[in-house]
C-alpha cells in the first residue's frame, strides 16, 4: 500500500472517530432535548386534538426512540465501550429499534401530509376524512407494519463482524441487500416521494380554494355586519391560522428530511450495488467514513422537528411552549418554598 494511501486511511479513521465521539454527543443532546420538548408541547390539550398535530406527536416519540437507540452506541464505540458491537442480543435489539422507529417516524410524517391534503380539499367528503380517530388508527397501523417490516433485521444483523462499516452489521450478502434496499426505499425514499406528491396536491388545493373565493357586493348596515363578523370569525380565524402554520411546519420538515436523509439512501443503494466489487483498503475506509457521516445526518433529521416547529409553528406552538415552561418554573418555585 502506498504511503499516501496509508496516511489518508489513518486520517479518515481518526476523523471518523472524532466525529462519532463529539459530533454524535452534540446530536444526541440536540435530538433528545428537542424531541422531549416536542412531546411535552404537542401533548397539551389545545394541540393534541388536531389530527395532524397528533401525528407530529407520535413521530416525535418515534424519532426520540431512534436517537436513544442509535446515537449512544456511536460515541461509546470511540471508547471501545459499545456493547452492541460484541453482544448479539443488544446488537439485534438496537438495530430493530433504530430501523423500526425511524421507519415509523417517516411514515407518520407522510400520514400527516395526507391529513393536510384532506383538510385543505375543497371536497367536503374529503375534509370529513380528516379526523383524530382516523389519524390514531393510521398511526397504529404504521407502527405495526414498521415493526413487522423490520423483524428481518433480527435475523440479518450480527455482532463481532470485520470488514464492514460497523461491527454490528448484516452477516450475509443477501441480508445486506435486503436490509439496504428496505432502508433506502421503504424507510426513506417512498415516504419522502409521497410527501412531495401530497405536498404538490396540497398546493393545488390551496390554489383551488383561493379561486373559489369571490368578492360579493351586499348592502347591509355596517354595525350589523360588524356584529355578525365578530360572533363567528374568531374561532374560524384561529383554526385557519393553526392550519396555515401546520402546513408551513409540514413543508419545512419535508424539505429538511429530504436534505438530510437522501444521502443515506443513496449510500445504502451504492453499498448494495457494489457489495460484490473488489475494493482497496482506501476505498473501504472512505466508504466507511462517508457511511458514518451520513448516518449522523440521519439522526440530525430525527432531532430537527422541535426547532422547525418553534420557528414556523406560529404563536400557537410558541405560546403553548411558554405556558409549559412557566408552569414548570412555578412548580419548582412552589417546591422550594
TrEMBL record:
<feature type="transmembrane region" description="Helical">
    <location>
        <begin position="139"/>
        <end position="157"/>
    </location>
</feature>
<protein>
    <recommendedName>
        <fullName>G-protein coupled receptors family 1 profile domain-containing protein</fullName>
    </recommendedName>
</protein>
<dbReference type="GO" id="GO:0004930">
    <property type="term" value="F:G protein-coupled receptor activity"/>
</dbReference>
<keyword id="KW-1133">Transmembrane helix</keyword>
<keyword id="KW-0807">Transducer</keyword>
<feature type="transmembrane region" description="Helical">
    <location>
        <begin position="177"/>
        <end position="202"/>
    </location>
</feature>
<keyword id="KW-0675">Receptor</keyword>
<feature type="transmembrane region" description="Helical">
    <location>
        <begin position="54"/>
        <end position="75"/>
    </location>
</feature>
<feature type="transmembrane region" description="Helical">
    <location>
        <begin position="22"/>
        <end position="42"/>
    </location>
</feature>
<dbReference type="InterPro" id="IPR017452">
    <property type="entry name" value="GPCR_Rhodpsn_7TM"/>
</dbReference>
<dbReference type="Pfam" id="PF00001">
    <property type="entry name" value="7tm_1"/>
</dbReference>
<feature type="transmembrane region" description="Helical">
    <location>
        <begin position="246"/>
        <end position="269"/>
    </location>
</feature>
<feature type="transmembrane region" description="Helical">
    <location>
        <begin position="95"/>
        <end position="118"/>
    </location>
</feature>
<keyword id="KW-0297">G-protein coupled receptor</keyword>
<feature type="transmembrane region" description="Helical">
    <location>
        <begin position="289"/>
        <end position="309"/>
    </location>
</feature>
<dbReference type="GO" id="GO:0005886">
    <property type="term" value="C:plasma membrane"/>
</dbReference>
<keyword id="KW-0812">Transmembrane</keyword>
<dbReference type="InterPro" id="IPR000276">
    <property type="entry name" value="GPCR_Rhodpsn"/>
</dbReference>
<keyword id="KW-0472">Membrane</keyword>
<feature type="domain" description="G-protein coupled receptors family 1 profile">
    <location>
        <begin position="34"/>
        <end position="309"/>
    </location>
</feature>
